[in-house]
Amino acid sequence: MKEQTLVEMRNKIDTLGQVVQKIYMEMQNLSDLSIGTHELVKRFDGYDAAIEKLKDEVAKTEEPKDGLIE
């Protein structure tokens, strides 16, 4: 291969590495945000009752698989 082609390939690889790094950082930020939001919501009044209600609704709407609800 020509040296110019190798240089272009190297530049593309470097660019892709930077993009992957930015995506990783954004995923970390979203993870932190979702954990913080969940912790905040858990402190709302009525959270436990709402969770139990959701569990009951899910249990009623799920189709049993071989007689079991997972």
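(the above was protein one; protein two follows)
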Amino acid sequence: MSLYVNGLLWVLGAALVGAAAAAVVRKIGHTEGKADNNESVGQVFTIVGGLQAVIIAFVLISLFDRANAASDGSYREANNAVAVAWAADALPEPTRATVTTLAHNYLDTVATTEWPRMRDKTRVGDTGRAQLDRIRAALNAVQTTDDWQLDRKTEAANRLWDVYQARQDRLNAARGGVSTIVWFALITGGLMAFLLPLMFGGTRPVVHILIVATLAGTMALLLFATYQLQNPYSGGAHVDPTAFESAVTQVAQ
């Protein structure tokens, strides 16, 4: 099912629940004194709704920033892996061939093996890390014969360290998400903001039902967006391994 269709169904479902709840309250609830309570209820709703809006805004902004950082990080990791292979071109054999092959295999491992596992939030395995470790061992073991080779060896080692760092950032982002306590605050605050308008009185029934339904649909939309953005490698964010797929073609085995 399409992401947008799924989100629309959640919004419409929440709006229908809100409309039904408002209709039931208007039908069987006591209306005496409700209009007199509108001011006090409105003040409470302003506080609760404002706090809920602030929390959701902070959460969504942080999730958008993390998705952008994940996308930028994927290109940084892939580009540095390519730079390692290119720097190794100046090194003597068999180090040159070893580093080039391992860099190519690492890029392919990330794109074809680790990425699907990150989307499913399962363990990516140790293959990629082992390939980087073998590159590091090959660079440490090579003997340079001139200053140019020494400079290329140092450049490859520095770029390899950048790959290690970007890889760890990627794995941390894949394991992350919205914490349980934040979900509790979002859902509880959403329910409170939804229930308070049911206490309003004095408005026409149709208007009251539409107000509650709209609020319920809006809350559902924001929670759905939060859920879809919590993993930058799946759902709505869905950062693709484009950087690694492109980098594979730049590193000849």
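Reviewer note on protein two: The chain has a mean pLDDT of 88.
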